[in-house]
Amino acid sequence: MAPTAKDTRPLAVRVYEQISSDIIAGTIEAGTALVQEQVAAQYGVSRTPVRDALTQLTLEGLATLVPGRGYIVNTLSPQDVKDVYEVRYTLESLAARQACGLHSPQQLVRLRGMVDEFETVDPADAEELFRMGAAFHAALIDPCPNTYLRNTLAAMWDHPIARRITMTYRQGPEHQSKVARDHRRILEALKTDDPDTIAEVLRYCHNPNDTLD
Amino acid sequence: MAPTAKDTRPLAVRVYEQISSDIIAGTIEAGTALVQEQVAAQYGVSRTPVRDALTQLTLEGLATLVPGRGYIVNTLSPQDVKDVYEVRYTLESLAARQACGLHSPQQLVRLRGMVDEFETVDPADAEELFRMGAAFHAALIDPCPNTYLRNTLAAMWDHPIARRITMTYRQGPEHQSKVARDHRRILEALKTDDPDTIAEVLRYCHNPNDTLD
DNA sequence: CCTCGCTCGGGTGTATACAATGTATACGGT
DNA sequence: ACCGTATACATTGTATACACCCGAGCGAGG
């Protein structure tokens, strides 16, 4: 745990991560007013990086600037989460279709290895599970030629709401094995080199009925 | 032209709009280094709003921060434009499917009126054509219940690359009438209340083969 | 009692000064 | 001649101070 390598990233990024993770964890309730100066004092930094962080949060829809009152933390209803999930699934399906049949043998081997590794992760380590899951999806659509689409999806995986989905709704060892099973199914579908098959399997795996609500 | 109502928006927004429009117009070439202090001096403002503007540009993929050199303007190949367009079309199709059958009679009347009005716009007024086109699409998917999806699409219409598409590749009176025709086709499809029909018409209208390249 | 206007305070927008970091260049050793 | 290193420079990150805007609360007048 010894942080021999000090975090050298900009303060704005660290402040942003802290606030967003507090929001999705529920530590900061919806409706709370985030005031630049208060937040700055709380983290022992100046208003400048706080301003950057709050701007980012607003851009992502987690907060709203209310004149004269500060940045208000938006409510995140289950419907909002579903909405984000639906868009993400749609784009991921598009990307997978385009990536279909373009995976190199090395990439396929690597994907298979990632699933195996995924199953060995400590079920309690939500952060690691999240990272590995995102890595699998990233590798899956890596051959997709649409760069903008790949970047958009990468941003959505890093999106706080996506984290909220994973951390809140997807927990426990049984879910870990379900995800591993889904990923194996996806790899099976990949063998067919048929975009429709891939999309169909993705639709099945992303079916929110058993993960959300 | 008398600016009786002074622009009261934040400087960061105005600087951002100026730079992004200069980029898509080609006034600022790809590879150009945007240095905070230089830009600030150029517009007669301080570095703070310039910083905000450049951050926004980076977030949207129009520039990249290169340490020690400044913000470098990214190249925008026709392929990049196509990529953005494809994602936009995909999401718009999804939104239209969900909005299908949910339009109130008033909304349908309004949509029809917008198409008529669109045809009366001066073909040389690219800015107005862009605004009206965006308004039509916004009204089209307005009943879509997925708020996140609606917001995402709204952001994409305002995206500089979308402006580039409209301003660069879609010009002239014949294109104006083509768009009006397409919009009428979409309205016809709306009558069927069938999501597949809508999606099919959208796919036809968004076929980039005759508008891009 | 209601309404209009004014002052006051909280909050963000903007400007400027300072600190940290990474790059390019020049110089000396090999 | 080449490579490693140290130094100077360019650029962004951060902190602080000032200016503007908006809303709330209070008081005077109808």
TrEMBL record, chains A, B:
Residues 9-76 form the HTH gntR-type domain. The keyword Mitochondrion does not apply. It comes from the Bacteria. InterPro entries: GntR_C (IPR011711), TF_FadR/GntR_C (IPR008920), Tscrpt_reg_HTH_GntR (IPR000524), WH-like_DNA-bd_sf (IPR036388), WH_DNA-bd_sf (IPR036390). Keywords: DNA-binding, Transcription, Transcription regulation. GO terms for molecular function: DNA binding; DNA-binding transcription factor activity. PANTHER family: TRANSCRIPTIONAL REGULATOR, GNTR FAMILY (PTHR43537), UXU OPERON TRANSCRIPTIONAL REGULATOR (PTHR43537:SF5). This is GntR family transcriptional regulator. It comes from Arthrobacter cavernae.
